[in-house]
Amino acid sequence: xxxxxxxxxxxxxxxxxxxxxxxxxxxxxxxALRLKDMTIVxxxxxxxxxxxxxxxxxxxxxxxxxxxxxxxxxxxILGGLIFGIGWGIIGYCPGTSLGALGxxxxxxxxxxxxxxxGAAIFAEVYPMMSRTLLSWGNAxxxxxxxxxxxxxxxxxxxxxxxxxxxxxxFEKKGL
Length: 175
What we know:
Elements: H1 2-20, H2 26-33, H3 39-60, E1 71-72, H4 73-90, H5 94-102, H6 108-131, E2 138-140, H7 144-148, H8 152-173
Antiparallel strand pairs: 1-2
């Protein structure tokens, strides 16, 4: 039960931050897709940096043992295509569409309806897909530090430095 409460609290905080960063706005979503507004890129990259640092810190002190799922190319490519096409058509990604609806933006309703319909279709075709497309190209549990043969802190440091440089460049360009 405690893990459910932690998940609920974390979700509320993340949703609050999504709203405060204004990334649930349609104009920010389309701006990101057109590479004209990097608000969403900055927000998500910041979340990735904080998350990767936190997970590895907790792992190193022995508090958690991350579950690294296998990389399955067929599933990743199909999922990425569906996600990207849906985002391009509706102008919201799944998380931001829920936040946008919470702010009263009714156009997000259609994206949420599409996600629910897609989930229902996926549930129906999953047995067939699990034996075909969803099992093609199983590369096993792959991590960037594992591929590079480096300590995870080296990779995290490179990501943080890259993030700072990228964010500085975005600010200079007014993005």
